[in-house]
Amino acid sequence: MSPVIEVRNLRKTYGAGDTAVHALRGLDLTVEKGEYIAIMGASGSGKSTLLNILGCLDIPTSGTYLLDGIDTSDFDEEQLSLLRNRKIGFVFQSFNLVPRTTALANVELPLVYAGVRRAQRRERALAALDLVGLKDRTHHRPNELSGGQQQRVAIARALVTSPAIVLADEPTGNLDTDSSREVLAILDRLHASGRTVVLITHEDEVAAHAMRTVRVVDGRVAGVLV
Ligand SMILES: Nc1ncnc2c1ncn2[C@@H]1O[C@H](COP(=O)(O)OP(=O)(O)OP(=O)(O)O)[C@@H](O)[C@H]1O
Ligand SMILES: [Mg+2]
User: Fold this and answer.
1) What's the CATH code of the domain at 162?
2) Does 55 map to a domain?
3) Can you say whether the dihedral through the CA atoms of 219, 224, 225, 226 is positive or negative?
4) Which of these, 167, 168, 137, lies nearest to 153 by C-alpha position?
């Protein structure tokens, strides 16, 4: 088995001097291809900091991160964003959709960045929206959709590029029980179809969907529960 995520001695410090915050303090983590893992831990323990680095949205202060075997240590912002576009689908707690445009246009966006032609973009975005059960909402704008539907659009956007890894930071944190269940069912299906899924959650019932739970305590991985 080849790890899709390999993190060694990862450190992230925000700020400097007296006000420096050591969010990650030498964290190690390996995730195999096709795994589904849940990350849990107290508020402020460094979970989002870790996920943002795994998603190439931020860079560590030190340590190494191998993504699908590629060492990202010396990558600049442009290289990181290219890699992100090719390998990562990111789902945020607050959906982060572009407000004044349709579900379809939101889902097409990563394909625009990837330089995919218009006709193919449309076809793939429609297929992704179909996959999350939103075929009949393609021309709705985010404010015309429920929270659960918005999160499903965000998931469609995350998977439209066929990323190796789907990262989700408390994807059900802003959703009611029914919408949470739908979102978790979609993540289950993604995992079943061979995707690697890494999700942050505060809820045991959500973590139960994963194959294993990684606990982050004070910027390090504490214990691994199977
Ligand atoms: N951009 C930033 N600038 C300064 N400090 C930050 C920044 N982002 C996070 N921190 C600090 O780093 C620490 C870890 O934050 P992080 O967001 O990773 O925690 P978390 O485990 O995701 O918490 P939560 O469960 O509340 O989302 C916290 O002390 C936080 O205040
Ligand atoms: Mg967080």
Assistant:
1) 3.40.50.300
2) no
3) positive
4) 137
pTM of the predicted structure, to 2 decimals: 0.94
Looking at the domain assignment, is residue 8 inside a domain? no
Q: Measure the CA–CA gap between 89 and 42, rounded to whole angstroms.
A: 25
Ligand 1 pocket residue status of 45, Cβ below 6 Å: yes
From CA 166, how far away is CA 90, in angstroms rounded?
Answer: 6
Number of structural domains (the chain) is: 1
Residue 118 resides in a domain: yes
pLDDT in tens, 119-140: 999 999 999 999 999 999 999 9
| Distance from the alpha carbon of residue 15 to the mean position of ligand 1, in angstroms | 12
- CB 54 within 8 Å of CB 65: yes
Q: Whose CA is nearest to atom 1 of ligand 1?
A: 14
Q: How far is the CA of 121 from the centre of ligand 2 (A)?
A: 32
pLDDT in tens, 32-61: 999 999 999 999 999 999 999 999 999 999
Check if 224 has its Cβ closer than 6 Å to any atom of ligand 1. Answer: no
CA of 169 to the centre of ligand 2 (A): 7
The Å distance, Cα 118 to ligand 2 centre, comes to 35
* Cβ of 201 less than 6 Å from ligand 1: no
Domain extent for 205: 34-45+76-225
Calpha distance 25→13 (Å, rounded): 8
For ligand 1, is residue 203 a contact (CB within 6 Å)? no
Task: Note whether residue 217 is domain-resident.
Answer: yes
Both tokens of 57, joined, read 């949205």
